[in-house]
Protein: DNA-binding helix-turn-helix protein
Amino acid sequence: MSKTAGERIKFVRLHGLNKEFNQKEFAEFVEITQAMLSLIESSKQPLSYSIALKIEKATGYRAEWLIDGTKPTGLMNRSYEIRNPKDQEEFLRLISKTSASRYVLLLLSELSDSDREAVFLLIESLAKKEGDHKLRSK
Structure:
Protein backbone atom coordinates (compact mmCIF):
# COMPACT_ATOMS: atom_id res chain seq x y z
CA MET A 1 0.00 0.00 0.00
CA SER A 2 1.21 3.54 0.72
CA LYS A 3 4.88 3.88 1.59
CA THR A 4 5.00 7.31 3.25
CA ALA A 5 2.86 9.05 5.84
CA GLY A 6 1.89 11.60 3.22
CA GLU A 7 0.75 8.88 0.82
CA ARG A 8 -1.30 7.22 3.57
CA ILE A 9 -3.00 10.50 4.46
CA LYS A 10 -3.72 11.19 0.80
CA PHE A 11 -5.22 7.71 0.50
CA VAL A 12 -7.51 8.40 3.48
CA ARG A 13 -8.48 11.78 2.03
CA LEU A 14 -9.27 10.45 -1.45
CA HIS A 15 -10.37 6.84 -0.90
CA GLY A 16 -10.61 6.00 2.79
CA LEU A 17 -13.86 7.71 3.71
CA ASN A 18 -17.37 7.81 2.27
CA LYS A 19 -16.51 11.03 0.47
CA GLU A 20 -13.56 12.19 -1.61
CA PHE A 21 -12.18 15.34 0.02
CA ASN A 22 -10.05 18.05 -1.55
CA GLN A 23 -7.17 19.27 0.61
CA LYS A 24 -9.03 22.31 1.94
CA GLU A 25 -12.08 20.26 2.98
CA PHE A 26 -10.00 17.52 4.57
CA ALA A 27 -7.81 20.01 6.44
CA GLU A 28 -10.92 21.65 7.90
CA PHE A 29 -12.39 18.23 8.71
CA VAL A 30 -9.32 17.19 10.73
CA GLU A 31 -8.69 20.70 12.10
CA ILE A 32 -5.32 21.52 10.57
CA THR A 33 -4.35 24.07 7.93
CA GLN A 34 -4.47 23.24 4.24
CA ALA A 35 -0.85 24.40 3.96
CA MET A 36 0.26 21.90 6.62
CA LEU A 37 -1.71 19.11 4.94
CA SER A 38 -0.08 19.91 1.62
CA LEU A 39 3.41 19.84 3.16
CA ILE A 40 2.73 16.49 4.88
CA GLU A 41 1.21 14.87 1.78
CA SER A 42 4.19 15.96 -0.31
CA SER A 43 6.61 14.64 2.37
CA LYS A 44 8.08 18.10 2.87
CA GLN A 45 6.95 18.07 6.51
CA PRO A 46 7.00 14.99 8.75
CA LEU A 47 3.69 13.90 10.26
CA SER A 48 3.65 14.72 13.98
CA TYR A 49 1.91 12.47 16.46
CA SER A 50 -0.45 15.29 17.47
CA ILE A 51 -1.63 15.80 13.88
CA ALA A 52 -1.89 12.03 13.39
CA LEU A 53 -4.15 11.89 16.47
CA LYS A 54 -6.35 14.64 15.02
CA ILE A 55 -6.68 12.68 11.79
CA GLU A 56 -7.35 9.49 13.77
CA LYS A 57 -10.06 11.18 15.81
CA ALA A 58 -11.79 12.50 12.68
CA THR A 59 -11.41 9.44 10.44
CA GLY A 60 -10.87 6.33 12.58
CA TYR A 61 -7.52 5.53 10.93
CA ARG A 62 -4.92 4.77 13.62
CA ALA A 63 -2.23 7.38 14.27
CA GLU A 64 0.47 4.70 14.24
CA TRP A 65 -0.62 3.48 10.80
CA LEU A 66 -0.69 7.03 9.46
CA ILE A 67 2.82 7.70 10.77
CA ASP A 68 4.68 4.49 9.92
CA GLY A 69 2.28 1.99 8.37
CA THR A 70 1.95 -0.16 11.52
CA LYS A 71 -1.13 -2.35 11.26
CA PRO A 72 -4.02 -2.45 11.91
CA THR A 73 -5.01 0.53 9.82
CA GLY A 74 -8.16 1.42 11.70
CA LEU A 75 -9.33 1.54 15.26
CA MET A 76 -10.90 -1.77 16.24
CA ASN A 77 -13.53 -0.13 18.39
CA ARG A 78 -13.13 3.43 19.60
CA SER A 79 -14.55 2.57 23.01
CA TYR A 80 -11.71 0.10 23.63
CA GLU A 81 -8.89 2.53 23.00
CA ILE A 82 -7.49 5.26 25.20
CA ARG A 83 -5.92 7.44 22.54
CA ASN A 84 -5.44 10.60 24.55
CA PRO A 85 -1.89 10.65 25.93
CA LYS A 86 -3.08 12.68 28.94
CA ASP A 87 -5.52 9.89 29.88
CA GLN A 88 -2.72 7.32 29.64
CA GLU A 89 -0.41 9.52 31.73
CA GLU A 90 -3.10 9.91 34.39
CA PHE A 91 -3.63 6.15 34.45
CA LEU A 92 0.10 5.49 34.87
CA ARG A 93 0.33 8.17 37.57
CA LEU A 94 -2.42 6.44 39.54
CA ILE A 95 -0.74 3.04 39.14
CA SER A 96 2.59 4.44 40.33
CA LYS A 97 0.99 5.28 43.70
CA THR A 98 0.29 1.62 44.46
CA SER A 99 2.74 -0.76 46.10
CA ALA A 100 2.31 -3.15 43.16
CA SER A 101 3.08 -0.52 40.55
CA ARG A 102 6.21 -2.17 39.13
CA TYR A 103 4.44 -5.50 38.79
CA VAL A 104 1.40 -3.91 37.14
CA LEU A 105 3.58 -1.92 34.74
CA LEU A 106 5.56 -5.04 33.87
CA LEU A 107 2.37 -6.95 33.12
CA LEU A 108 0.97 -4.10 31.04
CA SER A 109 4.19 -3.81 29.06
CA GLU A 110 3.91 -7.46 28.03
CA LEU A 111 0.42 -7.06 26.58
CA SER A 112 -0.36 -6.26 22.96
CA ASP A 113 -1.61 -2.72 22.28
CA SER A 114 -5.18 -3.91 21.85
CA ASP A 115 -5.12 -6.00 25.05
CA ARG A 116 -3.56 -3.12 27.00
CA GLU A 117 -6.28 -0.79 25.73
CA ALA A 118 -8.93 -3.34 26.75
CA VAL A 119 -7.41 -3.36 30.26
CA PHE A 120 -7.56 0.46 30.33
CA LEU A 121 -11.22 0.31 29.29
CA LEU A 122 -12.01 -2.24 31.99
CA ILE A 123 -10.33 -0.12 34.66
CA GLU A 124 -12.09 3.02 33.42
CA SER A 125 -15.41 1.17 33.47
CA LEU A 126 -14.83 -0.08 37.02
CA ALA A 127 -13.77 3.38 38.17
CA LYS A 128 -16.88 4.91 36.64
CA LYS A 129 -19.03 2.23 38.24
CA GLU A 130 -17.39 2.93 41.62
CA GLY A 131 -17.86 6.67 41.12
CA ASP A 132 -21.54 6.14 40.27
CA HIS A 133 -21.91 3.93 43.35
CA LYS A 134 -20.38 6.61 45.59
CA LEU A 135 -22.74 9.24 44.16
CA ARG A 136 -25.79 7.04 44.84
CA SER A 137 -24.73 6.36 48.43
CA LYS A 138 -24.45 10.07 49.32
